[in-house]
Specification:
12 helices; Rossmann fold; 49% helix; elongated; 7-stranded mixed β-sheet; alpha/beta; 6-stranded parallel β-sheet; 2 domains; disordered N terminus
C-alpha cells in the first residue's frame, strides 16, 4: 500500500497539485484500500440492502420493518426499508426500485403492489446483477430468487371455514378486499371464495368490493353493503385496513355479537380491541416480523454464495376470543410487547 501511496504522491507533483490536494488523494487511496481489506475479511458488513414494501399505512409494514432491522443488526448489514405512502401508488413503487438500481444496492427485496406492473423493473434489477427476493406479494412470472410470505390461498381457506361455522353454512356473505392486482389480494380472495363454494354450497357470496385497504373507503363500502343487504350474514375482510373499516361500520350499526359474523385478516392494536369487544369474531394473522427478518437473512445468504429455498411460508393462524390471550399469539401480534 505504501508503494502505491508514494507513487500517487509522485504523480501528483508532476501535475503540480497543491499540498492539500495531494493529502486528499493520499487519504482517499488509504481509506479505499483499508475498506477493501476489511470487506474481504467480512464482506457482509458492508452490504447495502433495500426492502421496498407496499406502504406504511398499516402496523403490518412497521412490524415487517422491525423484523428486517433485527436481521440487519444480527448480520451486520445496512437495510433501507422504504415504500410509498399509500398502497395505490404503483408508480412511486416503480420509481423506488429504479432508484435502488441507480444506487447500486447489493440486494433488494420487493413486496409488489401489482404483480404485472412490477415485473419489467424487477427484470432490470436481475439484469443488473442484483439478487432479489419478493416478500408478502410476489412478482409475476416467478422470477425472484425466493418468495417469502404467507400461503394466502390456505389462509383464505382458514377464514372461509371459520366463516362457514359462524353463519351455520347459510346466508349472504360479502368480501371486502384490498386489491384486485396484488397476489395477496387475489389469493386471499380466491382462497376464501373457493373454500366457501366447495364446502358451504348454501352460502350466497356477493361480488367482492375493493377498497385499496383504506380504512375510510372500507368503512363507506361496508355501510353501503349493509344498506343494500339488511339480511347480510357475514363479512370477510382481506387485510388490516379493510378489517378496521368493516369493524367500524358494524360497531356503528350496532351489529355486534351474534348479529353479523366478521372475519378479518392481519392484526393491530385496534383489531385486537375489536375482537375483545366482540365486534370482530376472528382474524387470520400472519408473521410480519419473520417476513422481514427472513427476507434480509435470505439476501445475505445469496450474497455470500449460499442457496435458499424458492418458497418460504411464514405461516398463518386464526385468532379468536378463545386464543387472543395466548402468549404465543400475542408475541406474533406484538413482537415487542403490547
Amino acid at each position: 500500500m505504501l508503494g502505491l501511496v508514494v507513487g500517487l504522491v509522485g504523480c501528483a507533483k508532476k501535475e503540480a497539485k497543491s499540498e492539500p490536494q495531494i493529502k486528499e488523494v493520499v487519504k482517499e487511496v488509504v481509506v479505499e484500500k483499508v475498506v477493501e481489506v476489511e470487506k474481504k475479511a467480512d464482506p457482509s458488513k458492508y452490504y447495502k440492502i433495500d426492502l421496498v414494501s407496499k406502504g406504511y399505512q398499516h402496523e403490518f409494514w412497521r412490524t415487517v420493518e422491525a423484523g428486517a432491522q433485527q436481521a440487519a443488526m444480527e448480520f451486520g448489514v445496512n437495510v433501507n426499508f422504504i415504500g410509498p405512502e399509500k398502497e395505490t401508488e404503483i408508480a412511486k413503487q416503480l420509481a423506488m426500485v429504479e432508484n435502488s438500481i441507480n444506487k447500486r444496492v447489493d440486494a433488494l427485496a420487493i413486496a409488489a403492489l401489482d404483480k404485472d406492473a412490477l415485473k419489467p423493473v424487477i427484470k432490470k434489477v436481475i439484469k443488473a446483477g442484483i439478487p432479489v427476493v419478493s416478500f408478502d406479494s410476489d412478482v409475476a412470472g416467478d422470477i425472484t430468487e425466493s418468495f417469502i410470505a404467507t400461503d394466502n390461498m390456505a389462509a383464505g381457506a382458514i377464514a372461509a371455514n371459520y366463516m362457514g361455522k359462524l353463519v351455520n353454512g347459510q346466508g349472504k356473505v360479502a368480501v371486502v378486499a384490498h386489491s384486485a392486482g396484488s397476489t395477496t389480494g387475489i389469493e386471499r380472495r380466491d382462497g376464501f371464495i373457493n373454500e366457501i363454494k366447495a364446502k358451504f354450497p348454501n352460502i350466497q357470496l356477493l361480488n367482492p368490493v375493493y377498497t385499496d385497504g383504506d380504512k375510510n373507503k372500507s368503512l363507506a363500502a361496508t355501510l353501503d353493503l349493509l344498506n343494500a343487504n339488511p339480511d347480510l350474514a357475514g363479512i370477510y375482510a382481506t387485510n388490516e385496513g379493510c378489517a378496521f373499516g368493516v369493524a367500524k361500520a358494524v360497531e356503528e350499526r350496532g351489529l355486534t355479537g351474534d348479529k353479523l359474523a366478521v372475519v378479518g385478516f392481519d392484526a393491530s392494536e385496534d383489531l385486537v380491541r375489536f375482537i375483545e369487544k366482540d365486534v370482530v369474531d376472528g382474524t387470520v394473522i400472519q408473521d410480519p416480523f419473520m417476513m422481514g427478518y427472513l427476507s434480509v437473512e435470505s439476501l445475505v445468504k445469496l450474497l455470500n454464495g449460499e442457496k435458499i429455498e424458492k418458497r418460504i411460508d411464514t405461516g398463518a393462524v386464526l385468532v379468536t376470543t378463545k386464543n387472543i390471550t395466548d402468549e404465543k399469539i400475542l408475541k406474533k401480534i406484538f413482537p415487542f410487547g403490547r
